[in-house]
Amino acid sequence: MEKPGIVITGVSGRMGQMLVRVVSASDEVRLVGAIERPGSDWLGRDLGEAMGGQASGVLVSDDAVTAVARAQAVIDFTTPEATVAFAELAAQARAVHVIGTTGLSPEDLGAISRAARHAPIIRAGNMSLGVNLLMGLTRKVAAALGEDWDIEVVEAHHRHKVDAPSGTALMLGEAAAVGRGASLDALRSPAREGMTGERQPGSIGFSAIRGGDVVGEHDVIFAGQGERLVLRHLATDRAIFARGALRAAIWGQDQGPGEYDMMDVLGLG
Ligand SMILES: NC(=O)C1=CN([C@@H]2O[C@H](COP(=O)(O)OP(=O)(O)OC[C@H]3O[C@@H](n4cnc5c(N)ncnc54)[C@H](O)[C@@H]3O)[C@@H](O)[C@H]2O)C=CC1
Ligand SMILES: O=C(O)C1=N[C@H](C(=O)O)C[C@H](O)C1
């Protein structure tokens, strides 16, 4: 059987370039398309040469319709607006859509759910094995500790990140809320500034640090009386996200239409 053809969107981005390396090195898939936004100075160039290496025979294009039509999977780490558009294209082509993009609004998520009626969509704010294991640990610790243990999620990322809290922080917050038998919407504390008043018992707080080239760091802090428990994940290489995304694209080939996450892919659900 022919290997699944993969289209990568946002190929000139931090994750896009990492995905190109990981997908190109895999002998389980074929890279069949490289998409960038209209106006990008990578358009029309050979992808390998644009990345500073040898010619790859794949030209960078903004014609996502044509590229997605000949693909079995789209791996997409771009922007919310672009991701919603790619979800519709992938659904039309019945291609698996792997979404790493974060900062999606409730409206964006609604559009993605509608697209998932036609093809598999695998979406996670963090595609690494470590963070998805940490979600299970967070849920268990939150369930084991009472409400007198305050939960705070602290994350740090590079200076270019545009959304906060990070997608990972929200996933970890949701896992903690589920451990407490509630949804994050019910427990999430508003961002703090000025005279905030005392902490609401049982709430889950978020803090975001932005600076330098930090790949991604997340602490889930359980603060009790006289002791603190800290669950931590440190990402030092974006390859962990790209490897997870490729694994999801391959796993998705055997799934029917619907919404999935990395816990499903990794069998941790
Ligand atoms: N789920 C996960 O494991 C991870 C998720 N992310 C998320 O991935 C997203 C991208 O992150 P970075 O690569 O750091 O950002 P970036 O800004 O370096 O790359 C985004 C790329 O998307 C391109 N793009 C924007 N609109 C487009 C369009 N309409 N068509 C095609 N390409 C388009 C941009 O030109 C750019 O090259 C962010 O939302 C980030 O939070 C990042 C790392 C891991
Ligand atoms: O923008 C990033 O870089 C990252 N984004 C994801 C997030 O929002 O959690 C995953 C990772 O932390 C890197």
What does this structure look like?
It is found in: Cytoplasm. It is an enzyme of class 1 (oxidoreductase). Keywords: Amino-acid biosynthesis, Cytoplasm, Diaminopimelate biosynthesis, Lysine biosynthesis, NAD, NADP, Oxidoreductase. Homotetramer. Catalyzes the conversion of 4-hydroxy-tetrahydrodipicolinate (HTPA) to tetrahydrodipicolinate. The protein is an alpha/beta fold and about 270 residues long. The protein has 2 domains: about 5-125 and about 240-265, Rossmann fold (3-Layer(aba) Sandwich); about 130-235, Dihydrodipicolinate Reductase, domain 2. Helix content is about 35%, strand content about 20%. The chain is built from 10 helices and 11 strands. The chain has helices at about 15-25, 45-50, 65-70, 80-90, 105-115, 130-145, 165-180, 185, 240-250, 260-265, and strands at about 5-10, 30-35, 60, 75, 95-100, 120-125, 150-155, 205-210, 215-225, 230-235, 260. A 7-stranded parallel sheet has the order 3-2-1-4-5-6-11, sandwiched between helices. Helix 4 links the parallel strand 4 and strand 5. Helix 4 (about 80-90) packs parallel to helix 5 and helix 6 packs parallel to helix 7 (about 165-180). The longest helix is centred in the middle third of the chain and has 16 residues, at about 130-145. The protein binds 1,4-dihydronicotinamide adenine dinucleotide and the ligand O=C(O)C1=N[C@H](C(=O)O)C[C@H](O)C1. The ligand O=C(O)C1=N[C@H](C(=O)O)C[C@H](O)C1 binds near residues 125, 126 and 168.
